[in-house]
Amino acid sequence: MAILPIRTFPDPVLRKTSAEAEPGTGEIKQLAEDMLETMYAAPGVGLAAPQVGVNTNLIVVDARNALGNPDPHVLLNPIITASSDSVAFEEGCLSLPEFTLEVERSRVVQVAYQDLDGTEKNLLAEDLFAVALQHEIDHLHGRLLVDYASPVKRDMYRRKAKKMKAL
Ligand code: ZN
Predict the structure, then answer these.
(1) Whether 136 is catalytic
(2) How far does residue 122's CA lie from ligand 1's centre (Å)?
(3) pTM of the shown model
(4) How far is the CA of 120 from the centre of ligand 1 (A)?
């Protein structure tokens, strides 16, 4: 296992549309393991492959259960197949240091995906888990939290990010 470096805005790898993940390979299993370790070390509730420089449809999420026990999920080729009414959450992103934004997303989502062995699965998620899934699936389409901000706030962050990179 290894902690991978996290790519930050405006790295172009974060803007590409990711390709279909191929289940069952040693490579994808290793990547998923490393992404989980990277997410826990950060710490974060989710991580998408583009955030570690790989444009593959793979995300990991752990929104924890009510008791705070670890609850890791690894999803290949996730697609949202149903969604409910919306809820607003204050979100952050490991690729957008020092940026948070309140975003409205569906409170409940159903997601179809494959597990690491290629088995087709479905899950129903709500609240923080649902929000994290939608956030991570956005990454696979090159969409970032900052895109939901007003043009003014987006511009301010763009300048701030430039300054942070220059340090
Ligand atoms: Zn993110």
Answers:
(1) yes
(2) 22
(3) 0.96
(4) 25
